[in-house]
């Protein structure tokens, strides 16, 4: 496993978030549709109840008038028994002419005798059920009526049995077996009902169109605070933590706005405190680095003299070992202090870029030569010649040195360094032959002071090398990524604009 200094937040592989698919019906559309649906249900229910009540009223009035008039006319009719056909037919014609609210077709039945006011002796709309009630089969004969629809035409059929009264029975009505039937079409009533249905239907569409106006107004009043909340959330996402929503009213949306404001205020306080703490920590690191730099310079001068004495053999072996240890630790401390000062300049946004047009291959060669990384068994350069780029040579030197040094410390040799151009982009790759980087470590390789092995307390570097590398690449407007090669080993890829 490679124990690498650390990433920054952006070093984690960036995955493009899929933008949420827009709903085919937005909230405004759904609110308007819901409002119109309620209006449509209300119109439909009202129309249905009105239609039912008006239909029953129209039909009941017509049938009551017809039944009452026909019963009265039959009661006034005088028919001799046994019945004579011509006399009965004349009576039926008189009944038909006196029909209310419009003429009837009248039929009479007496045993097997069938007589009518029309050219047909009987009617197909008179049902066996109506005949049974009029003749009193299974009960006392009585007047009855029935609405029948035949071939799409509605009819009112009325049956009235003829009775006679005798003194012997003290005026009690006795059935004679003669039954009169009246048949009247209800087409006019049906036409009136259909006209009512058409009027209700034709009135529903304008009503829905009118309902669209309050629906839009209602949707607007509901969506206004939602839009304000969206704008406020977007503004906070851009870093404006002082964003607030004007909350008015006492409904749920107003409560949501007040909750948002409270959360935003608490978040602003927390972030402000974190920023103050971070600023104090950065200032402390910077101040400590500056304060350590002067005494370290003196310590380094002394350790150089002591190193010379140790190398010359003027010191005993124990003292020489102690001197070399102090010299190595002092050098490591100096590197750490320099790195802390460099990273504090990045944090304070005080780092400057001094660019010049250079040959990228020459820059990499100088970096390797200055660090004495010229052994082909350790470092193998593959440098495309003639690749010109506008870079800050000092900072590019730091980038290459940190990546190669990191590969030599934590990876396997030989380390391969490649430089080539991809269009307007300069690509620098540093790959090693080591075991690679554990997948759990990859997202953190550019974090400051990150250790892949928590049990290890020390490392050869400062723990800031890769973090400084990333900041230098960022300063050039480029990116740096860490990955594992399919054949083994880690590879760091730097892309910077030329």
UniProtKB/TrEMBL annotation:
Keywords: ATP-binding, Cell membrane, Hydrolase, Kinase, Magnesium, Manganese, Membrane, Nucleotide-binding, Phosphoprotein, Protein phosphatase, Stress response, Transferase, Transmembrane, Transmembrane helix, Two-component regulatory system, Virulence. The keyword Membrane applies. CDD domains: HAMP, HATPase, HisKA. One of its GO terms (molecular function) is kinase activity. InterPro entries: 2C_sensor_his_kinase, HAMP_dom, HATPase_C_sf, HATPase_dom, His_kinase_dom, HisK_dim/P_dom, HisK_dim/P_sf, Sig_transdc_His_kin-like_C. It is a multi-pass membrane protein. Residues 287-498 form the Histidine kinase domain. It is found in: Cell membrane. Residues 220-272 form the HAMP domain. The keyword Metal-binding does not apply. It comes from the Bacteria. Its EC number is 2.7.13.3. This is Signal transduction histidine-protein kinase/phosphatase MprB.
């Amino acid at each position: 496993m490679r124990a690498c200094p650390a990433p920054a937040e952006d070093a984690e592989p960036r995955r493009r978030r899929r933008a949420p698919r827009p709903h085919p019906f937005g909230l405004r559309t759904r609110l308007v549709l819901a409002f119109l649906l309620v209006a449509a249900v209300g119109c439909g229910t009202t129309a249905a109840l009105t239609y039912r009540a008006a239909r029953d009223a129209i039909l009941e009035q017509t049938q009551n008038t017809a039944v009452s008039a026909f019963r009265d006319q039959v009661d006034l009719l005088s028919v001799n028994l046994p019945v004579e056909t011509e006399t009965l037919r004349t009576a039926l014609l008189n009944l038909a002419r006196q029909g209310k609210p419009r003429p009837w077709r009248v039929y009479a039945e007496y045993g097997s005798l069938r007589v009518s006011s029309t050219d047909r002796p009987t009617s197909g709309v008179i049902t066996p059920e109506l005949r049974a009630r009029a003749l009193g089969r299974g009960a006392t004969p009585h007047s009855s009526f029935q609405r029948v629809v035949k071939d799409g035409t509605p009819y009112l059929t009325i049956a009235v049995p003829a009775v006679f009264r005798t003194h012997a029975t003290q005026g009690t009505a006795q059935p004679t077996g003669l039954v009169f039937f009246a048949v009247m079409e209800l087409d006019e009533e049906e036409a009136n009902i259909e006209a009512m249905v058409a009027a209700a239907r034709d009135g529903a569409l304008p009503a829905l169109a009118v309902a669209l106006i309050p629906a839009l107004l209602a949707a607007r009043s509901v969506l206004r605070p939602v839009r304000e909340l969206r704008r406020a959330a977007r503004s906070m996402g851009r870093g404006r933590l002082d964003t607030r929503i004007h909350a008015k009213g006492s409904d749920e949306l107003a409560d949501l706005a007040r909750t948002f404001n409270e959360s935003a205020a608490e978040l602003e306080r927390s972030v402000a405190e974190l920023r103050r703490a971070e600023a104090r920590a950065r200032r402390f690191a910077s101040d400590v680095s500056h304060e350590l730099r002067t005494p370290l310079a003196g310590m380094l001068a002394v350790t150089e003299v002591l190193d010379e004495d140790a190398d010359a053999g003027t010191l005993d072996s124990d003292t020489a070992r102690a001197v070399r240890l102090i010299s190595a630790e002092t050098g490591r401390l100096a590197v750490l202090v320099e790195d802390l000062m460099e990273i504090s300049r990045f944090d304070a946004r005080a780092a400057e870029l001094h660019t010049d047009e250079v040959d990228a291959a020459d820059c990499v060669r100088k970096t390797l030569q200055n660090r004495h990384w010229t052994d082909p068994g350790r470092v193998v350069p593959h440098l495309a010649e003639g690749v010109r780029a506008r870079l800050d040579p000092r900072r590019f030197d730091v980038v290459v040195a940190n990546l190669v040094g990191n590969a030599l410390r934590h990876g396997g040799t030989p380390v391969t360094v490649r430089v080539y151009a991809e269009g307007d982009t300069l690509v620098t790759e540093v790959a090693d032959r080591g075991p690679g980087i554990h997948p759990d470590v990859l997202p953190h390789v550019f974090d400051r002071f990150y250790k892949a092995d928590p049990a290890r307390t020390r490392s050869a570097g400062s723990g800031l090398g890769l973090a400084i590398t990333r900041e230098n690449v960022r300063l050039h407007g480029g990116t740096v990524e860490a990955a594992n090669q399919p054949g083994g080993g880690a590879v760091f890829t730097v892309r910077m604009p030329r």
